[in-house]
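Supplementary Methods S3. Complex input for the tryptophan-bound model.
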Amino acid sequence: MDNNNVQRDGFSSKLGIIAAAAGSAIGLGNIWKFPYITGIYGGAAFILVYLVCIALIGLPVMLSEFTIGRRAQANAVGSFKKLAPGTPWFLTGWMGFVAAFSILSFYGVVAGWTLDYVVKAITGAYVGLEPDAIGGLFGALISSPVATVGWQLVFMAVTAGVVMGGVKDGIEKYSKILMPLLLVIILILDIRAVTLPGAGEGVNFLFKPDFSALNAEAVLVALGHAFFSLSLGMGTMITYGSYIGKKENLGETALQVTIADTLIALAAGLAIFPAVFAFGVEPAAGPGLVFITLPNVFNQMAGGMIWGILFFSLLAIAALTSAISILEVVVAYLSEETSMSRHKATLVSAVAITFVGVLAGLSYTSVLGGVTIPLPGFGSLVVFDWLDALSANYLLPLGGLFISLFVGWKMVRKDVEAEVSNDGTVKIGWIGMFLILAKVVAPIAIAIVFLNGVGIIKL
Ligand code: TRP
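Predicted complex, serialized as structure tokens:
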């Protein structure tokens, strides 16, 4: 509280807030992962469960993060120190710091692949190839140390360049350009996909539920993914919340970001499945869905080259605005809690994360392919999978659990109310509902997912 007279950097407009926060949420999770897990877990029924998780758990946790950050006016670690001084709550922020580090390490690898595919699409690298050869192209990329690490370095340099510019003149400025671009591209791809002859089957797959495909595992995956997709559980939204102006309506902002993220995930499914079904390729292809299945589809489409370029550019843009928000968690912490300048903090964290990231990037190459690390409940995993499993199954659920418990039980109710109602100037008829979700519903649901994920209970 001592440097309150120094103006903190922050977002300058409502549009900037939405662009940045939705930019964080909308990422590889929406366009790469959501379609492939929807494919694996059976389509519309899975989507329904996902929507319930978003509404009952995702939304209240996002509002909780915004509330903590804006109340404290600080980074993810500093926020807990300010709001609960002298308690171990700041460890929640620390866990977020570790999560940011591990997620960005492997996220940068996949983002690097998307850049490689932008170039492949432009140069026509997969045009006219047989399905097997297209699969081979992806295999060649991820097993090539030079290509995979090279693209990762390019991606991390761009991410760091934006973050170095600051909140208003870096993150907000680029989000306001990139997010509208993303929206335009995805709409074009949607229109193309649903007007393909034979698209109906893909649309049915997405919107007509078949509950027989649903099982406990699908429910757990849906909740875990709701967390990842909304950028929750590691303090991204605490950090961004601290940049939201005091006059903005936090509940409304959380709702808008949640809706935007969900609509883009559905739009990504709508861009992909009609084409997948129209050309008779396998919808449950897993992680290779966008890198192997889609180039096959583009090859069969009229003007496929254009669709490929648009699709992989979309993927790269989505990855960039998300990576920015992950790096910002680390940079905000270092520049506020240590004597480092923002400039130096960005350099130091980007280099450190990229260093770990290179180990992740080498996981599918012969360099580190044979090196595995044990993780309780998961056996022994290569670096990439280890970082992914550690964050998805341990750090994010625990982070989300402690964040909702903090707002539900630790913060004084009148402070929570003052923050979400802007000191009584905004109507919050839903506050009772929000507090029940934050106190009871979200913690219990997250705890179940966590215990199942690490193998302590088996559903
Ligand atoms: N939400 C992003 C996606 O869907 C990824 C992401 C950004 C993220 N920040 C995060 C995930 C914080 C978990 C926590 O791709």
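The first helix runs from residue 14 to 25. The first strand starts at residue 372 and ends at 375.
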